[in-house]
Amino acid sequence: MTLRSHQSASRLAALAASLLLATGCASLDGGSAPVAAASNAEAAKPVETKAAASKDESEARKKDREFDYARIQLDLAKMAAESARGAAKAAQGAAERELASAKTSRDHFKKVTVALELDERALSVDRAQQFVLESEQELKELEAMYAGEKFAETTKELVLSRGRSRLEMAKRDLELSQRRLDELKTHEHKQREKELGERVTKAQQAFDDAKAAARRTDLEQRLAVLRAEHAFEDAAREAPERARALIEEREKAKESKEQSKDGAGAGAEAPAKAEGAPAPAQKP
Hints:
mainly alpha, 3 helices, disordered N terminus, disordered C terminus
């Protein structure tokens, strides 16, 4: 073998050794990579499971809270509805009583007060007329009595002057009584009747408004309660365990109440049965 051939063989051997070394390292790295990836995935699984469990627990807790909120909101809506309906009913009742009172006052004025006051004024007029008549008669008697009297001129003038003054006052009293009667007929009664009529009109309007407000309140509260019930139903679907627990709790409370009623009834009937029960027969 020549020197050149020996050198070439040496180079080929070195190159083969290098290739073999590179191939082994590559295969070594390729086999360890999947193992490491699998190990990392296995290690990450518990963390992901814990995170998912924590998230589910948080969602469940949130749904339970929403269920409790919806239940309380429903109770509040029912209480508010009952209170609002009671207030509206009371307002309607007050308006109805005011309307009845206004109508009673108006009708009583027309049927009783008008006639009574007119009769009183007419009596005053008649009394004044009678007083005028009596005063005129007394004055005439005095004038006739003192007509032929020659003495006591001072006394005569004094008595006659008093008679004339009394007659004048009687006439003025009659005139005033007549004016009061006319005022009562033409103005005062009409004005009072108008005021009473306006009171009835206002009371009727207030009563109609109260009725409408009561109907509106009823509809508004029915809508509020219905919305609260729907929200509660939605929350119950999202939290079935809490809804089931609430139903069971209410059923137990209902059964306990019924049992307490039955026990009270049995306790009340026991003495009656004991009193009416026949005595046991004695053995011979």
